[in-house]
Amino acid sequence: MKILVAEDDPVWRKLVPAALDTESHDVVVVPDGAEASRLLLGDDPPALAILDWVMPGMTGLEICQRLRHAGLARPPYLILVTSMGRPEDIAKGFEAGADDYITKPFDASELRARVHVGIRMIGLQDRLAERVTELEEAMARVRQLDGLLPICAWCKKIRNDGNYWQQVEHYITEHTDARFSHSICPECRAKHVEPEIERLRRARASEPPPPPL
User: Fold this and answer.
1) Which of 34, 74, 110, 198 would suit a FRET pair with 210, their CA atoms being 20 to 30 Å apart?
2) Separation of alpha carbons 186 and 205, rounded Å
3) What does the chain look like in DSSP terms, one character per residue?
């Protein structure tokens, strides 16, 4: 996973990436908020960002606010890092759009744990987005059969958009995932099949016997 670390302090700019699993993640480090904002709003944005609150160019709080108002289809998971640990500061960070909050100094294991929580949340959001897409596609298929269908009163063929008449099963197969397996209902068996069987039986019975050999 691509993770962005935005930190203006050179010491913390080394400590934060060192606490992460760089073998499993692509960690990108920037020294100011303006560059962090540019990457997060770019074509290939990081899925998770660790943002220092106080930075030149743009603060971590301002970045959270900007991203939340950008209406991104897949917003990043944002973790604010700051030495301000008062309850009102934490509330301010969440109100700005941060997903999590960690105060300096912090233990490396705590940071990794919070990052892992963010990764799980991103995975859940991705799976939810996939389910929504599948549901939208299913609803689109249903809408294709919604409405008034012109059907022949005699042969029961359906007219498609190209003014071409199709058998019902062909039309439904083209517009849904349904597949047909033909059979005979009891009514049609009594009305059509059994009389035909009886006709053939009588025809065979009336045939002259074959000549002797």
Assistant:
1) 198
2) 26
3) -EEEEE-SSHHHHHHHHHHS-TTTSEEEEESSHHHHHHHHTSSS--SEEEEESS-SSS-HHHHHHHHHTTT-SSPPEEEEEES---HHHHHHHHHHT-SEEEESS--HHHHHHHHHHHHHHHHHHHHHHHHHHHHHHHHHHHHHT-S---B-TTT--EE-TTS-EE-HHHHHHHHSS--------HHHIIIIIHHHHHHHHHHHHHSPPPPP-
pLDDT tens digit sequence for 18-55: 888 767 788 999 999 999 999 999 888 999 999 999 99
How much is the pLDDT for 148? 61
**Any idea where the domains of the chain sit in the sequence?**
2-135, 158-206
Work out the angle between the directed axes of helices 108-144 and 10-19 (0-180°, nearest 10). Answer: 70
Is the overall model pTM greater than 0.85, yes or no? no
User: Residues 151-164: pLDDT tens digits?
Assistant: 777 777 777 767 77
Instruction: Find the mean pLDDT for residues 46-69.
Output: 92
